[in-house]
């Protein structure tokens, strides 16, 4: 049997109209986080299996995730329930869509389990990918895994793929030119590549599927909702962050459900702002809330598909620096600055590890919203 992970793991900091975003503001990361309620005063997966020797090796283009932890300690053990019987020789397929800009991520991976740590890759999506690879490498010696990575820039996808491929029994495919700005093109690329990999491996050999969506933009944080003069700016924002996301999810659910894939889990990187409003986050927060609700509805419509909305916390990354320099609310600017200076922002490794731990335990309620700070 084989495990399939599909991750949509790219995000973009946008502090100006979408059409004029500079490429220097494009990066891989999870959702933008508002201050957690407890931090207004800062507080002091199961792989798809196929015989390793039979697992195809794909080499296209896609970014990969990197390891997780606030420290250098080893990742927590994966729930043994996620591991196949020791007598099985399986290949895992992980789909991790990782786009730098306007792209829904996808990743299939055939990988055996060994520890993998990435110290150079950047972005929350990359952190998640490497943490997943590390967990699988340390647990399942009889599995091979294949990552299918989606992103905008082939060079960055290739760099990530090379690091992941350095692990034993891991192969990677990359799918560049993944643009969320085009609803139809991004959806077609997601589905066509998913079908290609699944067909080459054999749907009957795929034991479970994990899909992670980490794509999005912050929007212009200098504006309140009444400050937008351009209707097209609002339309463009929702097209990238909600319409493309919904279309991607819709067609992926249709494909996975109609082909009766086993043990399907969908994860979207959410935000505290999906459940708690803050000024100057009107477009971002409303889009995140809608995405959360969509996953809640999917959990009701498709009991066989498990969904999770994961809020990673206020991450210590390039996005936070951009938020501090552009947000129109002086109170939030001060809070974020203080959190950075006092070392209270969340380390990306720690948050990615928390997500993998939640997925490994697999005890969360389908359709629920889980925050990094939740017990």
From TrEMBL:
**In terms of domain of life, where is this protein from?**
Eukaryota
**Primary place of residence?**
cytoplasm
- The answer to whether keyword Cytoplasm applies is yes
Q: Which UniProt keywords apply?
A: Cytoplasm, NADP, Oxidoreductase, Signal
A Pfam match is adh_short
Q: Does the keyword Membrane apply?
A: no
The family database entries (InterPro entries) matched by this protein are listed as:
Biopterin_syn/organic_redct, NAD(P)-bd_dom_sf, SDR_fam
Q: Name one GO biological process term.
A: tetrahydrobiopterin biosynthetic process
- Which SUPFAM superfamilies does the entry link to? NAD(P)-binding Rossmann-fold domains
List the GO terms this entry assigns under cellular component, sorted alphabetically.
cytoplasm
Gene Ontology MF, one: sepiapterin reductase (NADP+) activity
Q: What is this protein called?
A: Sepiapterin reductase
Species assigned in the record: Smittium mucronatum
Show the taxonomic lineage: Eukaryota, Fungi, Fungi incertae sedis, Zoopagomycota, Kickxellomycotina
